[in-house]
What does this fold into?
Amino acid sequence: MIVLGLTGSIGMGKSTTARMFVEEGVPVHDADATVHALYAGKAAPLVEEAFPGTVTDGVVDRARLGKRVLGNPEAMKRLEAIVHPLVREAESAFLEKARAEGHRLAVLDIPLLFETGGADRVDHVLVVTAPDLVQRERVMDRAGMTEERFRELLARQLPDAEKRRRADFIIDTSLGMDAARAKVRDLIRVLTAMDREKEAREDA
It folds into this structure.
């Protein structure tokens, strides 16, 4: 089975692209959704221990936690040391299930894939991108987004140009949904064919 890492900076269309893979029958593991689930489960007591007062009724209050860790590199490292191993545990279980079900391709949707060393855990990397102006418009349209928050988020992410340089595949999401969907379908064909060839070589 081929494992494809899907990533892209904020506002680049990563979530929409991930849904396109799901619509084509490809299993996708969403790291953000996993974190949300962990904040209401396994991670909550660990986060409360590290950051007292950030958990309410057994669920991490993301706004309170954000105030404690954003702009504080040491606190962010402490949080990542709690969350990242739990996300990887869920990721491993997802991949094991996908293999057992006979899928030739599985996608790991990881927002900070390069920043957290996730590229080492996948066979290929797909980066979604869009021009700066399109990115800015999309992000600033989000509820509660401010210029300061946008700058903070960008500062945590590798520049888009560097992500594109490191990518195996790129999809420009500013060209429209149909164009992106066609690229996704082409990529699925290419990667599943690669997996078949690999299987044939191993069986030979």
In short: Residues 35-102 form one domain.
